[in-house]
Design goal:
Layout lengths: L9 H4 L4 H27 L9 E8 L4 E5 L5 H13 L3 E5 L5 H13 L7 E3 L4 H9 L4 E7 L2 H13 L9 E5 L4 E5 L5 H13 L9 E7 L3 H12 L21 H16 L3 E5 L3 E2 L5 E2 L2 E5 L5 H4 L6 E7 L4 H11 L2 E2 L1 E5 L3 H10 L6 E4 L16 E2 L10 H5 L3 E8 L13
Parallel strand pairs: 2-3, 2-5, 3-4, 5-6, 7-8, 7-15, 8-13, 12-13, 15-16
Antiparallel strand pairs: 1-18, 9-12, 10-11, 14-17
Helix pairs in contact: 2-3, 7-8
Bound molecules: nicotinamide-adenine-dinucleotide.
Nicotinamide-adenine-dinucleotide (NAD) binds next to α5 and α6.
């Protein structure tokens, strides 16, 4: 795999700045492990009613077979959680890390072993993706997939599972958290600095390689001149560079040559489409690393593919709407993209916030009010979306643990049956 950039520690950073790597690989992973342990203990004490005639209990068994955990490149914490949660709940796990995050994933695996995880409960399998997918889904012992990554990969695995359904000893659990086309909706009552700072942070932190990154901004014509001026001024201050060499860097390279080529095509589209104009950025250069400038595009067509599809790079598209038509715009946001991951509404008017909550109920699994669409914290904003964004199993919450257990209810009677007949028949 190609590292994101030619620095001394490319595989550790995965193109993140030091603080972003710290938040991910240390802070969030620790939160996952500690909260999951707490939730597991609480689940264990969640027991059915016992009555004088019977003692009832629930045993939270692991699934019968193995779980395949397949992780994406962009979050070290996610890989640890995808493998760690099923293991915590008593499962055997085959963990296939991303090709472009091997070293950090391996470090997490070794830390788990050092911390006392018995050998072979989690098997670390740095394999080719399709070969791994074919192999695990054709085993009769396959009983679960814990996946985070792109929609095409998840769909492919799901189809393979259905094709192999007759082989399995148990119906497999399929959990998949996928991409997003996350929105910031700005009402004319919004606080402009919150919009500008929240949008820049959300769209461009980690070079836009976050599933929750804001990639479409809907701004009212009344506020747009102010927003635009501030957005471009602040955009000019974004420091692009190698975070391993310069700790002041906010923004670095994208992960590999494939990502670079994909995003370059979108930049080409923005440059050539008559509906689109580039307001800032738009260049890229792979001579010293896969660098793409943070790019802001304005679209005259709210249904242009750039407003609908996930780019997974630093490209933000703005659609300016007539202030009075904000209700239509809320409908438009809901119906523009197949995804339903994250979204934000910026408004001081409480009635508008209520309207937006109602109209966008199914448009985002994580919904923010006057805050950016990124930055979910374990146990505070459990994460995940529906529609094409995945099965919304909410890692970072107690619900997630239930996916990886097959509970057994046990009744011990204290009143032996003395007659097969009902009492009224006696
Ligand atoms: P990807 O789909 O390319 O790869 C994900 C994993 O699947 C990798 O380990 C890859 O090697 C493996 N893989 C690829 N083909 C396979 C196959 N046929 N069988 C089995 N495994 C296969 O995704 P990526 O580029 O690593 O990650 C980016 C994507 O992940 C984006 O779409 C992003 O939005 C999404 N993501 C979602 C969340 C979330 O919580 N919703 C979090 C992080 C990333």
């Amino acid at each position: 795999a190609q590292p994101g950039m030619h620095s001394s520690l490319p595989f550790f950073f995965q193109g993140k700045t030091v603080i972003q790597a710290e938040i991910d690989a240390a802070a969030e992973l620790i939160d996952f492990f500690r909260f999951n342990a707490k939730y597991a203990v609480e689940l264990e004490s969640s027991q059915p009613l016992s009555v004088p005639s019977s003692t009832n209990s629930m045993v939270y068994r692991g699934l019968e077979g193995f779980v395949a955990a397949v992780s994406p490149f962009n979050f070290t914490a996610i890989g640890g959680n995808l493998a760690g949660t099923p293991a915590l709940m008593g499962n055997v796990v085959l963990w296939k890390p991303s090709d472009t995050a091997l070293l950090s994933s391996f470090a997490v695996y070794r830390i788990l072993l050092e911390a006392g995880l018995p050998p072979n409960v989690i098997q670390f399998v740095p394999a080719d993706g399709p070969v791994f997918g074919d192999t695990v889904t054709s085993s009769e012992y396959f009983c679960g997939l814990n996946f985070t990554g792109s929609v095409p990969t998840f769909k492919r695995l799901w189809k393979q599972v259905s094709e192999n359904l007759d082989r399995y000893r148990t119906f497999p659990r399929l959990a998949g958290e996928c991409g997003g086309k996350n929105f910031h909706f700005v009402h004319s009552s919004a606080d402009v600095p919150s919009v500008v700072n929240g949008t820049l942070r959300s769209a461009f932190e980690y070079s836009g390689q976050k599933c929750s990154a804001c990639s479409r901004l809907y701004a009212p014509d009344s506020l747009w001149p102010q927003i635009k001026e501030k957005l471009l001024e602040e955009h000019g201050k974004i420091k692009v560079g190698d975070p391993a060499q310069d700790f002041g860097t906010f923004f670095s390279a994208v992960i590999d040559d494939k990502s670079f080529a994909r995003i370059k095509k979108w930049l080409q589209h923005a440059k050539t489409s008559p509906n689109l104009s580039i307001l800032a950025g738009g260049n890229c250069d792979d001579t010293v690393g896969y660098f793409i400038e943070p790019c802001i595009v304005e679209s005259k067509d709210p249904k242009d593919p750039i407003m609908e599809e996930e780019i997974f790079g630093p490209v933000l598209t703005v659609f300016v709407y007539p202030e009075k038509q904000y209700k239509e715009i809320l409908q438009l946001i809901d119906t523009t993209s197949p995804y339903g991951l994250t979204g934000a509404v910026f408004a001081q008017d409480k009635n508008v916030i209520q309207e937006a909550r109602k109209l966008l109920r199914n448009a985002a699994g994580n919904f923010y009010i006057n805050d950016k669409s990124t930055g979910a914290v374990v146990a505070q904003q459990p994460f995940g979306g529906s529609r094409a964004s995945g099965t919304n199993d909410k890692p970072g919450s107690p619900h997630y643990l239930l996916r990886w257990t097959s509970p057994q209810a046990i009744k011990e009677t204290h009143v032996p049956l003395r007659d097969w007949k009902y009492a009224y028949m006696l």
